[in-house]
Amino acid sequence: MLSPHNFWPPHNFGAIDEELARFETAQFVVVPVPYDSTTTWRGGTRDGAQAILDASMNMELYDHELKREICEAGIHTTLDVEPVLSRPESMAVRVTEVIGEILFAGKTPIMLGGEHSLTFGAVCAALKCDLKGDLSILQLDAHTDLRHEYCSTRYGHGCMAYRVSQLPGTRIVQLGLRSTSKEEVENVPKNVHQFWCEDLLADFKSTLEQVLDTLTDEVYITFDVDVCDPSWMSATGTPEPGGLSYYQVRDILKTVCAHKKVIGMDCVELTGGDPAAAFAVARLLYKAMGYLSQ
Question: Among 242, 241, 230, which residue's Cα sits nearest to residue 271?
Fold first, then answer.
């Protein structure tokens, strides 16, 4: 009797062949983290990672823009990172351990959330591998996430950027912002640089050049999907009016990957239930891997 594997594609990012998905030779490691313990409006981001993986399995692997199959760089997909539900800070420790192993192995981690609190753990791991001490974090986001505490926790999704800003040697560049609180706007840390969405849309090229000038040579990218216009990205827990188009997000990723050394990336705050949104995210992540493997 033939194995089911003779009929079904491998269950990994892009459904790529086993040889291209080996950890030992892969440039990229996709890490699904189904966690949404501190979400405060619409839940479901725990389903985002699986939605992205499922959508990716139906992508064409040839990229017309880059004229090649990006997966030839090697993309390994790990098992789901088991959530720690006791405290979000404990979950951050787990993420730090997992992402740290990938970085120390010389791979580029692509973490699939899950909620935005996960980014804190990934940045902690990136800082441990930042030998030059000049790591900056590019935060694509509709929200500033600079609350000192939110819903009785200092490590929730609304506090992510503030927690990261308190880590020694960090610089955060926030791009695409459309929402903040009075507390946050009055207490922006000195190492946080903000570019609001209206300014970006008014002069996209010039603002993006300013972003590049503000970033250091080594960058970690955190992509919160609510930075996107909810007319095409409604599958998120906290949608905000306005936002970026698919091609604008693509061009931001393309520009930063071309001019900076991107050591890792995450995509967070996608909920399940909208295959088109998940497919768009999967394609953007795949293209980011393409820009980084040129």
Answer: 230
